[in-house]
Amino acid sequence: DEEYNRAYDRAVRSLKELSKTAADHGITIAVETVRPEESRMIIRLDELARLLKAVDHPNVKAALDLTAVGVAGETVKQWFETLGSDIRHMHFIDGTPYGHLVWGDGSHHLGRFIEVLNRYGYEGYLGQEITDGRYYMDPAAADLRNMKNFERYIED
Question: In terms of pTM, does the model score above 0.90?
């Protein structure tokens, strides 16, 4: 229930302070947008771009979470057009857009996302944030199925 600008200003101050420590240790802080039910701020690309500009430090960059991007009605292409090489990490999962699903269990098109990543030369991490409860009983089977979906796009 905190006023938006007050929370935003605190986030900028905190990230500026944390960026010094991150630089001292060779770490990059990757800030992501979240879904509206998780926060009242930094839920859209324009808000994250504004935050990164305000912090203005080479050790504070962007993380792209496909769930948050989809829920916001944004596209991966929009993210790369806005933030480009400042995107350093991705939660690269399937969804409807909600959900953190194994590829093939949601409605995203893996091949189209990979085409965009290749077009923009993305070389960061593709974190598999698979958190849906349906995978808890046999996470190894979920991981195997997920990797089989990726194998179609991996070149030797």
Answer: yes
And the tokens for 78?
A: 């929009």
Q: What tens digit of pLDDT does each residue of 109-140 get?
A: 999 999 999 999 999 989 999 999 999 999 99
56 vs 19, 46, 136, 156, CA distance in Å? 10, 15, 40, 38
**CA atoms of 40 and 143, how far apart (whole Å):** 32
Task: State the Cα–Cα distance between residues 152 and 145, nearest whole angstrom.
Answer: 12
Q: Are 91 and 65 in contact (CB under 8 A)?
A: yes
Q: Which two tokens stand for residue 13?
A: 């101050």
**Contact of 62 with 88, CB cutoff 8 Å:** yes
Q: What are phi and psi of 138, to 5 degrees?
A: -145, 70
